[in-house]
Amino acid sequence: MHGVADLSAALSAPVREVAGGPLLEVRDLTVEFLTRRGIVTAVEKVNLTLAKGETLGIVGESGSGKSVTSYTVMRILDRAGRIAEGSITFSGLDVAHAPESAMRDLRGREMSMIFQNPRAALNPIRKVGHQIADVLLQHVQADRSNVKAKVIEILEQVRIARPQERYHAYPFELSGGMCQRIVIALALACRPQLMIADEPTTGLDVTTQKAVMDLVTELTRARGMSTILITHDLGLAAAYCDTVMVMEKGKVVETAPAERIFRDPQHPYTKKLMRATPRPGITLKDLLPEDEPGSAAAPLPAPSAEPLTPSPSPARGAGSAPSAAAAVTEPLLKVENLLKEYPRQGAPSGLIARLKGKAVPEEDAIFRAVDGISFEIRRGESVGLVGESGCGKSTTSSMVMRLLDPTAGKITFAGEDISAIPARDFAGHPMRRRIQMVFQDPTESLNPRYTAARAIADPLIRMGKVGGGAKLREEVEQLARMAGLPLNLLDRFPHQLSGGQKARIGIARAIALRPDLVILDEPTAALDVSVQAVVLNLLDELKHTLGMSYLFVSHDLHVVGLLCDRVIVMRQGRIVEEGGAQEILESPKAAYTRELISAIPHPPV
Amino acid sequence: MLKLIASRLATAVPSLIGVVIVTFMLTRVLPGDAAAYFAGPAATPQAIAEIRAKLGLDQPLPVQFADYVTALAKGDLGTSLSTGQPVAQEIASRLPASAELTLCGLILALAIAVPFGIMAAVRQGSWVDHACRLITTAGVSLPVFFTGLLLVYVFYFKLGWAPAPLGRLDVFFSAPPTITGFYLIDSLLTGEFETFRAALAQLAVPSITLAIFALAPIARMTRASMLAVLSSEFVRTARAAGLTDYTVILTYAFRNAMLPVITTLGMVFSFLLGANVLVEKVFAWPGIGSYAVEALITSDYAPVQGFVLAMAVLYVALNLIIDITYGIIDPRARSEA
């Protein structure tokens, strides 16, 4: 797989080539950060070796030190961080002690980086062409007279359509995938020997992810470049890396060839990560570590406890065959010919801007975000709404939640037509109690000035009959127990809690009023896989205990398949395919569904 | 861009109408009877009533308002009772004096505060940062009349570097012919370099006084907004691409950091324009602020109305300029318009 070494890159490289030696060698690297609470060790005694043309994956969850390691290699740590110990050797150069000017020459020309969140990684007020030109001019790869031609050539290499035009585009005019191509162009402009990709596809759709990763692989292989891929996604690492290094809490726990690490993981943490990764042919319980089977939540209060009994829903078995039980009952939610249109021009909505990036005909004055869809959710049933960004899944859930008014169509909930109630009045409507929502970002969806207890109590105070004081506190504590949130955390503020704990608050808040339907809008997208595994299991348990129905909005078919009975696949505002979760995952009928499934990378097991 | 200017101007019209109504009402409800003031302390009630009728103050408010608006439409801002001069003419001669002083102060403040703020942000925690904090705190803590008097004491009385703080020009010079009303510009345009030097000498100390005051918000805003931008992801990308500090700080960070600074600048300018009354008093500057205060004390309606209206128009113009500047710097603002 070592590509043909690029002659021009090799000739222009000022760094000594060490015959036969690795391109990058990190020995006993320890990185410390100076914080208010003293010195924090972010990375401890990390060793890694990267040969020329090799692709190394660094896998770990947030806080594992994988990003810090790579920033240290490029010496772009912020001022609080410093190398406490160890050495970094890049092509024979001692990175830890090299002068800043030498490092600056190295960055961009010999080693470069692509980042998570491509839109934020680009200067918002500078034309993308100029941003690439800046790099070329900096490293004397072009002069003023030919820089534009060179930039356009690079844009063509990263498969940007109409590069002449895009040269003059600003980042906000491009879609996320397109911005990532620009960032890649920026990183590859000077043909470096090493590219570090820091979660390059997090936040992108699976099909875009595949396109971007394939492009990176193709370009780096053609140039014989070495790559470090930093990711939390084991599947991605497996699909694109030669060697995988697993990190946990600043330490390397395991390094092995990609195939071996997945077939035969040695370290318990690697095994735990492997288990937590959603993949075909498993159940929710399989996601949890072997040694703690069963309950994801703290022990639930006895189902016989008075306030726990779900009032409107029928009693059901412990949920091994929910579809069978649900089939006999009438639909809880019925959506008929739902339509949402937006004017194309001059609409100040951020949603439009997001949707506009997609391939929809530009000439229409009206843009249909949701184009006449119909579906049903029965009592106790979980329905997954899957699709890529801009497919209209969030618009649909917002309309069901009655946050948005539909242009046309009917939403019937528990026999009542709720689409007739204007969105603005629905907040005070008695039906509002029965539909609740769990939001995508556990941090952003909590009021930073409310304690956990206050956040959970919010719906009770606004819509519940609970008086106050001790009674309210008791109710909140019970909800926290159900959501698996330790009671001693109830008086903390969101910034003092972890992502998983905040997700539990969001869930406790959503179930506070014992709703019939909970809309889950990508509730685990911002969480680490091991936390996601726990939260998914919690949601499943709560559903069975409380007899709720879920509308699970997600871009991840595997996650949806684990939690849902039925799946609806959406594309460009329309339903492409609908059916049982297993059936869709195993034998998808629509070509688009097949494309979605095949785009998901998974570990070779 | 033209569309943006037109739409911004259109939104300014209602606020101008509002200003006209409010200033009219405000001057009518303020305590003090203009007629009584002008009749003098020994006047008989009959004499006061006569003056009141002459001024039209005996008319019902709507009629007074209609008269005021009609006159306004003809460009007539009324006549000052205390000086007997038409208000429009007084404002036309005094506004450039205030504007020249304010602009000089602001440019001086910008020239010091922006590089200072950038340095403080780039070398966060260094001596520059501490000096920045100290100077900005001192700048806002000291009232302008105090710094003004202090500077006069040091530079005029003790050192003798500055000329006497008596207006825009030394008595031995005559004002340059009025082209823009700004002495510095007019004297340069007509080639009277001696007058230019004299005007500049007069302007220096009051400008510094204002600049010290205006320094603080600009420097702090520059520092804060630079810090935010410097820790942003695109600056990290630029660094990872090996761009020099110079390019990263000026082309990437500063242009983005400028947006909030410009907003602050607009506020500081309009604030200074009204608030430099004290500086004008200390330096006997024939500006619009001192004119308005004197008129207010004597319940002289017309100049107060004229002053507020002039300020409002200026403020609208200023905001328009800021919006356009925003549009030039930030392509996103352009597309939203």
TrEMBL record, chain A:
Molecular-function GO terms, alphabetical: ATP binding; ATP hydrolysis activity
Region span, Disordered: 283-323
Annotated Gene3D superfamilies: P-loop containing nucleotide triphosphate hydrolases (3.40.50.300)
- Give any single GO term for biological process: transmembrane transport
Q: Which GO terms describe its cellular component?
A: plasma membrane
**Topology term for the membrane:** Peripheral membrane protein
Q: Which organism is it from?
A: Xanthobacter tagetidis
Q: Where is the composition biased (Low complexity)?
A: 314-323
Q: Does the keyword Signal apply?
A: no
Q: Where is the composition biased (Pro residues)?
A: 300-313
- What name does UniProt use for this protein? ABC transporter ATP-binding protein
Chief subcellular site?
membrane
Outline the extent of the ABC transporter domain.
24-274, 333-597
Q: Determine the domain of life of the protein's source.
A: Bacteria
Localization per Swiss-Prot or TrEMBL: Cell inner membrane
Q: Which residues cross the membrane?
A: none
* Protein family: Belongs to the ABC transporter superfamily.
The protein's matches in InterPro entries, at most eight in alphabetical order, are given as: AAA+_ATPase, ABC_Ni/Peptide_Import, ABC_transporter-like_ATP-bd, ABC_transporter-like_CS, Oligopep_ABC_C, P-loop_NTPase
**Keyword set for this entry?**
ATP-binding, Cell membrane, Membrane, Nucleotide-binding, Transport
Which Pfam families has this protein been placed in?
ABC_tran, oligo_HPY
Taxon lineage: Bacteria, Pseudomonadati, Pseudomonadota, Alphaproteobacteria, Hyphomicrobiales
From TrEMBL, chain B:
Q: Note the topology in the membrane.
A: Multi-pass membrane protein
Q: Where in the cell is it found?
A: Cell membrane
Q: Which Pfam families match?
A: BPD_transp_1 (PF00528), BPD_transp_1_N (PF19300)
- Keywords annotated in UniProt: Cell membrane, Membrane, Transmembrane, Transmembrane helix, Transport
On whether Membrane is a keyword of this UniProt record, the answer is yes
Q: Which terms in the Gene Ontology molecular function aspect does this entry carry?
A: dipeptide transmembrane transporter activity
Q: Where do transmembrane segments lie in this chain?
A: 12-30, 99-122, 134-156, 196-216, 257-279, 307-329
**Where do the ABC transmembrane type-1 domain residues begin and end?**
95-326
An annotated GO cellular component of this protein is:
plasma membrane
* Family the entry assigns: Belongs to the binding-protein-dependent transport system permease family.
Q: What is this protein called?
A: ABC transporter permease
Q: What is the lineage of its organism?
A: Bacteria, Pseudomonadati, Pseudomonadota, Alphaproteobacteria, Hyphomicrobiales
